[in-house]
Amino acid sequence: MHALVVNYIIACFCGVIFHESKTTITEITQFAWFPFALGLGAMFITVFNLMAITTQRSGLSVVSVATKMSVVIPILFGLFYYKESLGLLKILGIVLAMVAVYLASIKTRDGLKIKPANIIFPILVFLGSGIIDTTIKYLEGEYIAKNDTPIFSATIFAMAALLGILYLIIQAIKENFKFELKNVLGGIALGIPNYFSVYFLVQALRSDILESSGIFTVNNVAIVMVSTLLGILLFKEKLLTKNWIGIGLAILGILFIAFEKL
Description:
Order of helices and strands: HHHHHHHHHHH
Number of domains: 1
Low-confidence stretches: none
Number of helices: 11
Number of strands: 0
Shape: globular
Structural class: mainly alpha
Largest sheet: none
């Protein structure tokens, strides 16, 4: 939690630094997206804690699948709300991407094992992650001006940081607070890419590269694919046959979605 709070503080500072014009806190509260950003900040830290609980109770593979499969929520939103195209190649790409996420994420031969009492947690992670992505897409299209992306992101992370600090204060009152320098360093290392992950997602949604349904699919499946390959390179992970099949399907899914645009 300490590293997480530092990460949100650093991500917030990144947004303030990269915002091109000077904006006061009072002015920020006047933006139409402000209450949504506060809600997203609360969702960020809530979903992270749900992910931690799910990992402890059901394993990391369950979290990975629940998080990445949640992409179906913003995909459906883009297709129905924005009337995005749905050709054969895109359908194939999305289906292959979903299968790829599952196969690449399962690191055991037995597949996913979830006790009935714990099923609510991956469901909440699935819904929470999907709602976050969908809300970002909606706000990008309806409320956020081109130059406001950095300060919008900073507001999200500031809210998450405030809630995290409140949690740490409660921990300190209960005498359950242990400060370690490594958590600060870890938070700094995480905060910078965390900020840019939101910033570049918004920029991608604004581009004409792909429609939002394609952007979210490619983004999520690429994350699984790249993190799996990094696991091999950095941590010498041994992949199962189905993991390699998942990586292959991920590449095919991305290609199909890209060809749909041509």
